[in-house]
Amino acid sequence: MIRVAVNGYNVIGRRVADAVSAQKDMELVGVAKTRPDYKAVIALKKGYKVFAADEKGRRSFQEFGMACSGLSRDMVELSDIVVDATPDEVGVANKAMYSELGKNAIFQGGEEPDIAGLSFVAQCNYEKARGHKFVRVVSCNTTTLCRVLNALDQSFGVEKARVVIARRAADPDEFKKGPIDAVVLDPATIPSHHGPDVNTVLPHFPVISMALKIPTTHMHLHSLIVTVKDKSVNDSKVIDKLRKTPRLMFVDSGKDGFKSTANVIDYARELGRPRNDLYESVVWKDSIKAIDNEIYFFMAVDQEAIVIPENIDAIRAMMGKESREQSMKMTDKSLGITAPAL
Amino acid sequence: MIRVAVNGYNVIGRRVADAVSAQKDMELVGVAKTRPDYKAVIALKKGYKVFAADEKGRRSFQEFGMACSGLSRDMVELSDIVVDATPDEVGVANKAMYSELGKNAIFQGGEEPDIAGLSFVAQCNYEKARGHKFVRVVSCNTTTLCRVLNALDQSFGVEKARVVIARRAADPDEFKKGPIDAVVLDPATIPSHHGPDVNTVLPHFPVISMALKIPTTHMHLHSLIVTVKDKSVNDSKVIDKLRKTPRLMFVDSGKDGFKSTANVIDYARELGRPRNDLYESVVWKDSIKAIDNEIYFFMAVDQEAIVIPENIDAIRAMMGKESREQSMKMTDKSLGITAPAL
Amino acid sequence: MIRVAVNGYNVIGRRVADAVSAQKDMELVGVAKTRPDYKAVIALKKGYKVFAADEKGRRSFQEFGMACSGLSRDMVELSDIVVDATPDEVGVANKAMYSELGKNAIFQGGEEPDIAGLSFVAQCNYEKARGHKFVRVVSCNTTTLCRVLNALDQSFGVEKARVVIARRAADPDEFKKGPIDAVVLDPATIPSHHGPDVNTVLPHFPVISMALKIPTTHMHLHSLIVTVKDKSVNDSKVIDKLRKTPRLMFVDSGKDGFKSTANVIDYARELGRPRNDLYESVVWKDSIKAIDNEIYFFMAVDQEAIVIPENIDAIRAMMGKESREQSMKMTDKSLGITAPAL
Amino acid sequence: MIRVAVNGYNVIGRRVADAVSAQKDMELVGVAKTRPDYKAVIALKKGYKVFAADEKGRRSFQEFGMACSGLSRDMVELSDIVVDATPDEVGVANKAMYSELGKNAIFQGGEEPDIAGLSFVAQCNYEKARGHKFVRVVSCNTTTLCRVLNALDQSFGVEKARVVIARRAADPDEFKKGPIDAVVLDPATIPSHHGPDVNTVLPHFPVISMALKIPTTHMHLHSLIVTVKDKSVNDSKVIDKLRKTPRLMFVDSGKDGFKSTANVIDYARELGRPRNDLYESVVWKDSIKAIDNEIYFFMAVDQEAIVIPENIDAIRAMMGKESREQSMKMTDKSLGITAPAL
């Protein structure tokens, strides 16, 4: 059993904790949280040990009258590996503690690439994680881009990829963030950081990304324009390849009625997924068009969930004996990821 | 076993079908739908028989290549009772068919009160439903108002209730509806229809409602101002009474961190509720203030889910032998409604 | 000529500067700003002298290559009175400087009432401002409530006022603020600060306010419930009184098509108002209902503009010789506020 | 004097009427409207003759007690040319009437290209309009794309243009339209209609567009990726060319603080533009990047205003003697379009 600690219990940490609990070869040591609230109440109800991030947090747990199993450092000591799901740039401060205690750790994509020796996407570079003390699971947008660009590269040879990312501006529970009625952009950075971040995993072709923030809370929406070397590429070849790509789900606007990201989330709710999470990259099948040797399509990504299976696979890639295929299969089964229904 | 058909398979119908399936004393005959789409795909996956609303629909199911078990009329013939969850004002047209076939039926709150002999809220008038051929389960806003006003009336004697309802303008999957950045109101109707609709269930005190539509998709938000006869009323008496009221959940903005409706929905996701549904009226405990003999508080209602337990209880109230307490207990257990955790 | 300095050049400051410039008896000394940007560019184009808030700001103006006439302190020295339109709680820090330099000052409603000897609304207490060194113009919500409640009190005797305020969560250019899809509330404070703030101007009856933040950028929306002493009150008496109330505009949802706050803003654009500003309290005429001795209606307020005429009148009330009627007439004429057209 | 009638008085019609009134060589015959409301009230205040679209409309004007100068047909008879600003696909029905009366007409971009002999953008094909009985001013998105692509083509030779358009889902006063919290897309159409529509004006290179609808009410946001023949292209050459392009405004996110479309609209309000209209294509200067021979940048377009100068120029191109340069200069001066300030 791999003993896993989860440091940080917000969007990613909550989901990783549940996913770790669902693995037969892993044991959840506990979760660390900065303060008590309804999320902590439910963590305790699920039987998770809750640790405080620091002494101040421990006191607030006491005042709240809520069980607290110690400090996050205590939790780390009891574990083989830590999944660090603290906010952006807190992870880098935690790294010293993990090193000092001689523990392996996984960081999230909000950290800079150089925090770890490897930027990780299971289907791209699972094997390389073995032996690494620190691994960084890349962000939601980078993960989904790596999945599809790696697949297209395998079959058609990617020459250049361009993507416009319409980013949801806030997670569903981030009620302080806007905008309410505007598009926010960072024009000084074309390409945005997403393209270069893909290159930390897939270094062999340029990826130029342009990013907008829009007033939605569900899913980033990617508009892809991918030039490939194979001039014989056509719509059905692309469809065939993506259909076989793991952790990718097709939807169809016409036949199935997926006219918007709202329908995709509604579909996740119908599927009965916990928290209506979608771990899959969602590609509109009827958007796929190959015009000359340029491939166009729309893809959506559930920013809360897509990296969860990657975190689980990263744990095994670093600590276990399973092959990529074995690990991905175990992870997918435990999370209910199956071959796409539609 | 009560054989139940569900006519209409959108927001309410989908949830009623699942809830009927979860009852030991009920059998889901099937669901009727106007057209094939991802919702129908998943209904079939769940093992539900899907019927077409009409011949045109049947042909579209055939073209889609999807199993269709007949027309909605066929489904009704196989059932003891129909839950009509078709869009507003379609129910009234269906009523003739139900009558002709001699079937009992439950209509939703979007229909006019006179469609049925009784407007129903389980904890207010369960017993009156027995013997009725047709019953109307009142709308989400009316249901939640009836729950709390009935409770306050029992303990303190309601003299007059006023409520301002900030209505979510669209359900999460209704992507065509706005507004995007405005408040929509119907000034010509103060009181809005909600107050008089409460009086179809609780006729003994005036309820004056003012309604706004705002750009959100989750939960209506009620601001209540209730004058009571008992001049000794105070905050803690109100809290005590509401704590004992069935299908009511307290949240707290301070201790528990419920600062917005976004937190309430997030909480439902953490609870693992299917589709993150909340069947309970959600009252902010720390908002409850009794100033003289006037009670003020905030309440939120999940417009997709709150009437689901009421539909189940209405079936039993009309067709079964169980008492109100027995039925509500059976329903609540099957849906995971427990005494509020927080 | 009254020499007026405007400290702070965001939502309120920009408008006050323009309004001061439009008065025959006032002279705009200049405006102070923390940093150079497009707003400063246009201020200079209008011929306003721009001062930096501090040395750091002065350097950033220099780096930008933009004319800067000195520091805000220099500006204050050149003036008879300062309108402080700095962000909430900065005004209190500036007060010491104004005092030291022996200058009069007007603060905005974001400051605590005790910053000044008087909380001001022109039509309620203009005369009281004379002789005050410091006056506080109350906030947008308080201003509009004072206007209508004062009017109703004059005619019918207000016994108790209750109001639910659905607040726009951000100004149109505040792109960082949310929520995007939620209602944010502060349940621990019923009444919200608005009711007690009205009592700083109108102390003779209780005002109980409940406040929500909603995802809009234009106009706060008030739902009022006002109990009056005069039991003979009826709809048309209320309409007659409000029609004669200064700085109040009627709209009608039926005849004129005002179905939403979006129509009100559209109307302001059609009127050709600068920045589509509405200085008037906007009351839906067809929402006015008197039920027994309780008056119900909807009112909207343009949070960016409503306090502008009040600031101008406060200047005259403190520094000039004009009567209330004279000052309000001068102000209204200069801003294009006329008797309501509709 | 060219006698101009404006048929339709919503987003475009209202602005065209004002713009026609501001031209020295044109006379506004009147405007036609389907029903009376606040927009009609203000049209009358401005001194415009208001005509009813049909007999039913005329009766509703009478019931409203509002002056009505006749039917739209009467208005057309009094004019030399009609600007048809009726909703999409109504224009095609009106065309028969215009033909029958022997009148020239200008249609808007919501109509199909074949409604007129020419799709028009002033700076691309002004001269071709002479002699045409019917001209179609292309839509807002097509207009802005034509302006910049024509300019880039002149200097660098466009090989292929790709654009992702994040469309505002509703105009500010369209309070019924959503989505509220979703991205709506039409995956079945890549390219969306915008690219081919550009080719009705600029036929010599492919334009592949992908379109999304997002929950905003102000400005469409274009992300452009343009491959050019000139391999020596670089950032500053592109900036130089676009700086000289008519009806194009640069903004800068760093120096000037334009971080979002909200700032652009705020800027228009500061400029004192009527209705805060921006007739210019807005390009973020600091977004312009030439990577190899591919040019990337962000552009925003005020969907309500950008086609207004094009309509005025189209009138002159069809009916007058002025050259393109003369007409554009007259139009720009009348509307306050100057060389970009920033």
Please tell me about this protein's structure.
The structure is a homotetramer of 342-residue chains. By secondary structure, chain A is of the alpha/beta class. Chain A has helices at 11-21, 38-45, 55-64, 72-77, 91-100, 122-125, 140-156, 194-199, 235-243, 261-270, 308-319, 324-335; strands at residues 2-7, 26-33, 50-52, 81-84, 104-107, 118-120, 134-137, 158-168, 184-185, 207-214, 220-228, 248-251, 281-284, 289-291, 294-301. In chain A, the strands form 2 sheets. In chain A, strands 8, 9, 10, 11, 12, 13, 14 and 15 form an 8-stranded mixed β-sheet that branches. In chain A, strands 3-2-1-4-5-7-6 form a 7-stranded parallel β-sheet, sandwiched between helices. In chain A, strand 6 (118-120), helix 6 (122-125) and strand 7 form a beta-alpha-beta unit. Chain A starts with a strand and ends in a 7-residue tail after the last helix. The interface between A and B is medium-sized, with 35 and 35 residues.
Q: Based on the structure given, which CATH architecture of the largest domain in chain A is correct?
A: 3-Layer(aba) Sandwich
CATH fold topology of the largest domain in chain A: Rossmann fold
User: What share of the residues of chain A does DSSP label as strand, in percent?
Assistant: 15-25%
Radius of gyration of chain A: 20 Å
Helix proportion of chain A: 25-40%
Number of helices of chain A: 12
At the fourth level of CATH, the homologous superfamily of the largest domain in chain A is NAD(P)-binding Rossmann-like Domain
Low-confidence stretches of chain A: none
What is the chain-wise order of helices and strands of chain A? Answer: EHEHEHHEHEEHEHEEHEEHEHEEEHH
The pair of chains with the biggest contact is: A-D, 44 and 44 residues
